Amino acid sequence: MREPTTNVKIQLKRTPNVRSDGTDSGDYGLLRLLREGIFGHGGWRPAWHKAQPRAHYRVLVIGGGGQGLATAHALATLHGITDVAVLEKGPIGLGNVGRNTTIIRSNYFHPDNVRFYEHSLQLWEQLERTLNFNVMVSQRGTLNLFHTEAQRDLFTRRANGMRLQDVDAVPLDRKEVKSLVPLVDLDHGRFPVLGGFLQPRGGTVRHDAVAWGYARAASRAGVDIVEHCEVRRIVTAGGRVTGVETTQGFIGADIVCLAVAGHSSTLASTVGLQLPIESHVLQAFVTEAIKPVLDVVLTYGAGHFYISQSDKGGLVFGGHIDGYNTYGQRGTLPMAEEVAAAGLTLLPGLGRVRVLRQWGGVMDMSMDGSPLISRTPIEGLYLNGGWCYGGFKAIPAGGVATAHLIATGEPHAIARHMDLDRFADGRLIDERGAGPYPWAH
Ligand SMILES: Cc1cc2nc3c(=O)[nH]c(=O)nc-3n(C[C@H](O)[C@H](O)[C@H](O)COP(=O)(O)OP(=O)(O)OC[C@H]3O[C@@H](n4cnc5c(N)ncnc54)[C@H](O)[C@@H]3O)c2cc1C
To answer: Tag placement on the chain: N or C end, fewer CB within 10 Å?
Structure first.
């Protein structure tokens, strides 16, 4: 009898997975996983090149968060500017890009903001292909609940505004809300749920993967990613930028772009600039892992509370900023209590699970609650900041728009309204209709 034959040969021997710059080949396929498992995981290499800074760059991006990395990536891939370094004071991913609650959406009210965030959402929809990296984009829908007739009007207006720009927004009545989220208590005490509006294309993205994916793609496109390099001071001569003073010495540059989230005003003050930004702490919480109970991102309308369930099973939730100026990344108990109270009112079942972790991030709250992608009065100094608590969803568009401004000298069409001059001219983008109260955004 003949031996059975097979055409499929599984090769388990070690093959080189290192690129010439010492980074990993990026093969995360099944065979590689099997091979690494068998050989003790000794073959993995860094995903991006750990660069030493050179003496001079055409563009220095300060801050290796999502916005800074996306800006550097867009400079290299869309404009061919590769003489770029990203200077990050710690390791990549430990800023707000890795601290947020991972929500992406474009359900804004102000027409210019709808356009900007919708552009970003469309870039998220292609991001895995753009970066060749699995960032786990999950368009599970974002559902905003309303609890009064006045709020119904407000939300309907917002949803109609979105639909006028071809952005998806679906009104839901009480029954539809209950069938989508059975956990919700529709008739809780003071604020019964009257309905909601759903953006089906909203959702979540694995935030660490976004930082890693952008760092890897930018590095491969020729950008230097310099970690553990804190910028102490921006250096100018004759009214224009000449470089930065860092913990690794002076680095010269023609152009410097600030993308440091909660530390924008601190660094800008080193060249005498006072920005319309305050730094506040925002907390997030995650529970122990449980079976799937929530498959949309849910936002409570009678308080500041939002929640989703991560792929690992934890319920991830948050609320308002703590409401005082700080650079601390922890937050206080009164806000934790307020968030828990809002959560329990809406989802009484939440009382049965234990909170596993809590953390905070420093937010750069602008005075009108909208971001800044702008030149500054210092020649060669650009600003990407003022993201308040919405800058994660804005990463793809923020990077593209900031790179466009740096490379062409002209604002990108989707971010024309985000200039610094609006505060001098009185053209504020009052997304929340709350006026200049940073604590209220
Ligand atoms: C708890 C929480 C929940 C949030 N939830 C959401 C959400 O669900 N959806 C959403 O859209 N947004 C959310 N956000 C907001 C969002 O995370 C931020 O707006 C966004 O990440 C800011 O841009 P970034 O990624 O560039 O910031 P960061 O990742 O903070 O990047 C800035 C980087 O600059 C570095 N840096 C600072 N100073 C210096 C210096 N002097 N020299 C060198 N480097 C420096 C920092 O170390 C940091 O890595 C949330 C934020 C928090 C804290």
So the answer is: N
Residues 90, 232: Cα–Cα separation, whole Å:
13
C-alpha of residue 388 to centroid of ligand 1, in Å: 9
DSSP string over 145-181: EE-SHHHHHHHHHHHHHHHHTT---EEEEHHHHHHH-
The larger pLDDT score, comparing residue 427 to residue 52, is at 52
Nearest to 287 by CA among 316, 259, 258, 310: 316
The residue extents of the domains of the chain are: 56-98+208-276+370-440, 131-203+279-366
Judge whether 142 and 202 are in contact, CB under 8 Å: yes
Q: What percent of the chain has pLDDT above 90?
A: 87
Ligand 1 near 431 CB (within 6 A) = no
**pLDDT, position 4:** 53
Average pLDDT on 61-84 reads 98
* 8-state DSSP, 364: E
Q: Report whether residue 282 contacts ligand 1, using a CB cutoff of 6 Å.
A: yes
Euclidean distance between CA atoms 83 and 73, whole angstroms: 11
Per-residue pLDDT of 387-419, as tens digits, reads 998 999 999 999 999 999 999 999 999 999 999
Enter the tokens of residue 205.
């993205």
**Look-up: residue for tokens 């079942």?**
349
Residue type, 225: I
Closest residue to atom 35 of ligand 1, CA basis: 63
**CA 112 – CA 110 distance, rounded (Å):** 6
pTM greater than 0.85: yes
The finding on whether 89 has its CB within 6 A of some atom of ligand 1 is yes
Domain 131-203+279-366 has CATH 3.30.9.10: yes
State percent of the chain over pLDDT 70. 94
pLDDT one-digit tens code per residue, 374-389? 999 999 999 999 999 8
